[in-house]
Design brief:
There is one protein chain. With 144 residues, the chain is α+β, with helices and mostly antiparallel strands. Helix content is 49%, strand content 13%. The protein has three helices and five strands, in the order αβββααββ. The chain has a three-stranded antiparallel beta sheet with strand order 1-2-3. About 3% of the residues have low confidence.
């Protein structure tokens, strides 16, 4: 077999392998989900990679927590589900990208927005019949 034919055959094999890996990565990203349940079981969240909320389930008893406590519990549960989604995706992607996985993660993280210096959650207090729908669960401390 000539060198040109061998080179072409190897190139076709590499291209087929890259196409298979790309399809597998698309499938992994599309199907990856993270799930978390609050410690008391009143909130369950399912999140896709990147933080997109897929579903949120609230137990009947969750309304007894009050608006602020429930807001904080929902946010915390979603964050836990996001971390789980990232771990699930990493477990599925690592075998597909091999040695390049850590480099790809660093590159992706460099594109993510920076986290705020200090994010403070106000103390949750029971709220009765007060409309807090326009109040944030988080407040910024420091310059804005």
């Amino acid at each position: 077999m000539s060198d040109a034919r061998q080179w072409l055959r190897r190139a076709e094999e590499r291209n087929a392998d890259m196409a298979w890996r790309a399809a597998a990565m698309r499938e992994a990203v599309a199907g990856a989900r993270g799930t978390a349940r609050s410690a008391d079981g009143s909130v369950t969240a399912v999140v896709a990679p990147g933080g997109a909320l897929v579903s949120l389930e609230l137990a009947e008893r969750s309304v007894a927590l009050g608006a602020r406590q429930l807001q904080a519990l929902i946010v915390d549960t979603i964050h836990q589900a996001s971390a789980d989604a990232a771990a699930v995706l990493a477990a599925e992607m690592r075998p597909l990208v091999g040695d390049q996985f850590d480099e790809a993660v660093r590159a992706a993280q460099s594109l993510s927005p920076e986290e705020p210096d200090e994010l403070v959650r106000p103390a949750a207090a029971p709220v009765e019949d007060e409309d807090v729908s326009d109040q944030s669960v988080y407040t910024w401390r420091g310059e804005r």
